[in-house]
UniProtKB/TrEMBL annotation:
It holds the Pfam family Whib. Residues 1-21 are annotated as: Disordered. This is 4Fe-4S Wbl-type domain-containing protein. The lineage of its organism: Bacteria, Bacillati, Actinomycetota, Actinomycetes, Mycobacteriales. It comes from the Bacteria. Residues 57-123 form the 4Fe-4S Wbl-type domain. InterPro entries: 4FE4S_WBL.
Amino acid sequence: MPVAGSGHRHGQSPGRPVGGCVTRRRRIADADRSFPEVTEIPDIRPILRGPRLTGALCVGRGHLFDDRLHKEHADARAARHDAARRLCARCPAAPECAALAAQLPAENLQGVWSGRLHEEHQPARKDLAA
């Protein structure tokens, strides 16, 4: 119960708002620290100029094709990549995807492309981790 006129609960420091709420400024500062710093933007022009990949089975399933996810176990990663490869094996856009992958620099190929795993050597992505 708040102490009359004190703005804080009995036994709680006066610097902390009633209810233990964290200020909006603090939440924003914490959120800014959770995103990795982007030091280089990959060249995506070949992707934008490339084929449309009509009927591609990867649409809406991008997480299956990512190289690594934050805090993901090796077994889960292998199962996810196996599912991606199975989709690629029956995908009508596989030839166009393979042609597109052949145009991209090796450092831009990460995860599964046209049924083949291209491993990255950077920190795992946190934004898609389950």
